Each structure stands twice: as structure tokens, then as C-alpha cells.
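Attaching the record inline, Q. Sequence:
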Amino acid sequence: MQTVTIDSVKLLHWLNARKITPPMASERAGFTVDALVDGNTDIARPKVERLAEILNVSVEHLALREPTPAVIYASKQDVAATKRPINRGGIHFYNYYTLPSPKGQISPVLIDILCPKDRMPTQNNGHLEPAITINLGPGNINGLWGAEINPHTWHVLHACRDGGPSWVMGDSYVEPAFCPHTYSRASDEPAQILSYTVKSNLESFLAGANGWAGDRFEGMVERVAAAAFPAAILKSYMERHGYDATSLAAASGISGNALTAFLEGDEESLAVAELKTLGRILAMDYRLLLKPITNHDPVGKTLCTIAESRASIRRFKSYTVASMSAAPSLPDLTGLFMKVDTSATERALDLNDHSASHYYTTGGAMIFRWAGGEQTIEAGDALWVGPYVRHGFSGNGSLIKMGNGEGTTYLDQFEMSNSYQLADTLRRGWRDRQTWTPLHHGGAK
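Structure, as predicted:
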């Protein structure tokens, strides 16, 4: 019979959330849950299904997930073994190769660009997930980002070809959700890109909204898109807290004309101090009312040329680095060119990021070190490094570093900034084994 390993921390969380004590759960499930509460335990799936039904959750909400490693290494040969051809438009269009990541997480991919220069590349439909893409060369490539041809939708992504710093590999760009895109060679030279298509922060919301009736969904879209987004959000909170423009102006002391202008889409009509006042009255995070910063072109993408990357070259700790494309609308999505030129005897673990990092070795030979060991790496090798894993590189070589929010997203950081007694809350919540009421077999710890 199939068994499921119960995660005792998850079980205790849902017992707390549903206000069900272990004796209640045992009585309703028809078996004792004491062993499940005390530690991770394998039990028959039908029993897990009964327990999940009592707690009104899925089995996956109670099942133990594999622990996430600190580091995953893949050699050049390991990456090459993931090769799979993609046919599009009746030709062999791409080869894909996957870089390492933990199970269930998204990985960057290497893509051989095979569409010839004299052929218009077949367009895709875009996807929910945003992405950052870099031309690794050696050839330039044509990029297409829409059906209508203009300078924003059809132009060259250049590779390093002018004798400049070769570790700054090429142009890079960030694309938003559902941006159509495709590529072809710009010459007879081969070309390859590195692309990191990451999980969208809208994914969970849309997964829930997929269960709504169509009129509910359209009503939501009409509300949030009716005006500038800050205005739409303010209207939503006013609705929820029972305010109209007149009563909110009176309660806040803000000019009714200025408030009305903001609600009609004038994002500059209220000062930050006034937005904070509205936040206190409506019990909302006033930062949702700030005008977002954008730097994208008319089709939504943000381009960074080789020249712009070179202009950003700077020393950072024991490395020389250069920026890639970045968009403030997608703050979790990051890329960095890195040059390593330190003695192999230096053992500094001077890198420590709040989210996971992917590294792809573009040249040279280096030693990668972390608290759990070390690994020699060379061109074509790849690494995944978990959040808050202290690590570093030495030797002579170059890397591309990419990341997203797997670890701590900017949405997590917003939530942390609003949390009462943050450090205490995080420490209590980590592997929390206390219950909302004393345990029947010894009391709360």
C-alpha cells in the first residue's frame, strides 16, 4: 500500500490553523495522531487522505518535501547531456540545455540559435513567466518581439566582437509576462543565449482565480485596470472599509479635489505624507499607492547593451563585475557578469545572497568554495547556490550570475517590513512545533 511521509511541522500548523487539537483529530480520523505530531512519520495514504479531509487541505499540504540542498554542481558534460532539439516552423530551430536546480524549481537554459539569417524566425506566443536573456555569442542574433516590425520589435542582440572585455559576453534584456519573442542568427556564425525564465509572482493568484466564474474574473480585471493602478487599489480599499471620496477626505483632512484627482488617475496629486495618512485610515500599506518605476520600451522589454554593461564595470569585494539588464518592475530577476582574478589560496566566502543564485562558467578555471566544501569549475560548468549560503570563488575565470526570488522574494520582504517583532516572529515560525493549546501528552514546549 502506498505510504506518505507526514511533515509534523506542517501537520501542527494546520491543526493550529483549524483550531483542532490532536485528540480531536485522532477521534475524527479513527487513529491516533500522536506519532505524527512527535515527528515525521510514514503512514498509509488512505489515512493521510482522512486526516487531510478533516483539516480541509490536500495531502500535499501535509506531506514532507525533500530538503533543499545548499549547492548543486553540474559539469559541462552534465549540462550537455540535457540537450534536446526543438522543431519550429518546419526546421530544427533550437537546442535546449538545462542548468541545475532543486526539484520543483525553475532553471536557466542554454539555447543554440539555429534559425538561419535569411529566414524570418517563427514567433512564439509568450508565457506568464518573465525572463532575463543574454547573448553568449560568438555571433550576433536577430530578436523578434511582435508581429509588427519596427525598431522595438526587430533588432540585433550583439555579442562581444570588438576586442573589449570578453567576460562581458553580450547584450542582455528582460522581458515581461506574455511578451512574444523568437530569435535567428544574424550571420552564418553559430550563436547561443542563456535565458532564465522564472516563476511569475502572479502564478499563485491566477491559479486561484482560474476557479472563479468568468464574470467574477472580468469584474476583477475591470476594477484593477479601470485607472492607474494606485487609484484602483485605493478604490478597492475604500470599498472594503466603507468610505467614499467625501467621507475619506473628511476623515483624512485631505483636499477633496486632490483626492478625487488621484482616484481619477493623477498619481502626482497626493504627497507621500498624504498617502501615509490614507494608509493609516484604511489599514493598508501606503506603498501600494506610490507610482511604480518602469524602464521598459513600448513592447515591455528592458534592454542593456554591451556598451552599457561595460560602462558599469566596477570592483565588488574580491571580484570585478558588470551589470546586466534589470527592471524595477521585476526586482527579483537579476543578472551579473563576474570576473574572478584572485589567488587560489584565498578562501574568502564573501558572497551571501537573500535568494538562490545560478552560476554559469564562461571562461577560465576557478575554485568554488562554500561552508560545506569546495569544487573546481571550468568553462561550461554550472552551479545552483541556495539562499543565505556563504560562498566564494578564487582563481582566474569568468561567470554569469542569475537569480530570482527563490528564497526571499521582494513580496516576502514587503511582508517582513510589516511584521510585528520581525526577528521573534521569524524564529518562532521556523519549524514551529508549538500548538495553540497545550499538547495532551506533555504540554506545549
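The chain has four domains: 1-65+421-445, 84-197, 203-289, 302-403. The longest strand covers residues 357-370.

More tomorrow.
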